[in-house]
Amino acid sequence: MATLNVKNLPDSLYRKLQKRAKQQHRSVAQEVTKILDEALEAPQPISIRTLRGLGKEEWIGIEPADHVDAERKSWE
Predict the structure, then answer these.
(1) Cα distance between residue 59 and residue 16, in whole Å
(2) In this predicted model, what pLDDT tens digit does every residue of 2-42 receive, in sequence order?
(3) What pTM value is reported for the model?
(4) What residues contact 63, with CB distance under 8 A and at least 6 apart?
């Protein structure tokens, strides 16, 4: 397993990491690993149909990608 050393880490940031790690019942190293893993994970694409409160009912039966293509063509 690789080792990562971080130089010049501000004390205030380290204290925040310590606090967060303690809240999650992890070591600082485990918490940093978790944070990096989440930050570097590929984002999951979302569909406009899953959005709440943004006119979801208006999209029933409409393929969002087709709608975007049609909108772009209308600008030409």
Answers:
(1) 43
(2) 999 999 999 999 999 999 999 999 999 999 999 999 999 98
(3) 0.57
(4) none
